Amino acid sequence: MAYERLVKKLTKENLWLYILRLLKERPMYGYEIVKAIREKFKFSPATVTVYVVLYRMEAEGLIKKVKEEKSVRRIGRAYYAPTEKGLQVFEKGREFIENIYKLLFS
Q1: Is 28 left (phi over 0), alpha (psi -120 to 50) or beta?
Q2: Among 66, 68, 97, 106, which residue is least crowded by beta carbons within 10 Å?
Q3: How many angstroms from the chain centroid is the CA of residue 95?
């Protein structure tokens, strides 16, 4: 049980870190982010959870919509990119995790 809680805390409850890591590479739309998390980080957050986190991140100024594509059969598809604030917060999070790792395993 303790291990499962750890995994949940380090993955699903901190999706913003994974999302910012992906968006550092290139702008992506919501479902593309879901697929990339599954492929790159090997866990499967619910699609609706990813969208909730995206909306929260946008409200906090960590990401922004950079373009929307519309086609005849679809509603607009919003692409997201990190803001400068988002990149700074990502770096602080990365440094925090790195420091914890060093304290636990050195």
Answers
A1: beta
A2: 106
A3: 17
Specify the residue for token string 């999302």.
19
The string of pLDDT tens digits covering residues 34-80 is: 999 999 999 999 999 999 999 999 999 999 999 876 666 667 789 99
Q: pLDDT tens digit string along 81-106?
A: 999 999 999 999 999 999 999 999 98
Report the number of distinct structural domains present in the chain: 1
What is the C-alpha to C-alpha distance for residues 36 and 19, in angstroms, rounded to an integer?
A: 9
What is the token pair recorded at 6?
Answer: 């750890």
The structure's pTM equals 0.90
Q: What is the pLDDT of residue 73?
A: 64
Asked whether 43 and 12 are in contact (CB, 8 A), the reply is yes
Domain of residue 84 covers 2-105
Q: How far apart are CA 78 and CA 27, in angstroms?
A: 10
Residue 33: which CATH number? 1.10.10.10
